[in-house]
Amino acid sequence: MKKIAILIGSGSKLKPILDYQNLNAEIVTVISFKDKSEGIELAKKKGIDTAFFRLKDYQEKGETREYFENDLINYLKGKDPDLVVLAG
Question: For 15-71, what is each residue's pLDDT tens digit?
Fold first, then answer.
């Protein structure tokens, strides 16, 4: 079975993906780039791993965009997805 990571904003496009009955794949994580995300709550209710990666959080700590991107990439590598879907 293929493993999918989904990157979202608020998550408005996530619900149809989560509700699709014939997906034939495992969603291994849902990552949001927004402070408040309905999609994260939906994923949690379905028992899917969730995370927030917000550039502004890194910038507030004095980190660079490159550091933010590297953290995101390393997180994704840890989930070992076959496919990364941008749904936001």
Answer: 898 888 788 899 999 999 987 889 999 999 999 999 999 999 999 999 999 999 999
Kindly give the pairing relationship between strand 2-8 and strand 83-86: parallel
What the block records as the tokens of 49 is 């791993």
In contact, 88 and 6? CB cutoff 8 Å: no
What is the number of other CB atoms lying within 10 angstroms of the CB of residue 71? Answer: 13
Question: Cα(78)–Cα(3) distance, rounded to whole angstroms?
Answer: 12
Number of domain units in the chain = 1
Residue-range definition of the domain harbouring residue 52: 2-86
Q: CATH number for the domain including 60?
A: 3.40.50.170
Q: Where are the alpha helices (DSSP H) in the chain?
A: 14-19, 38-45, 55-60, 65-79
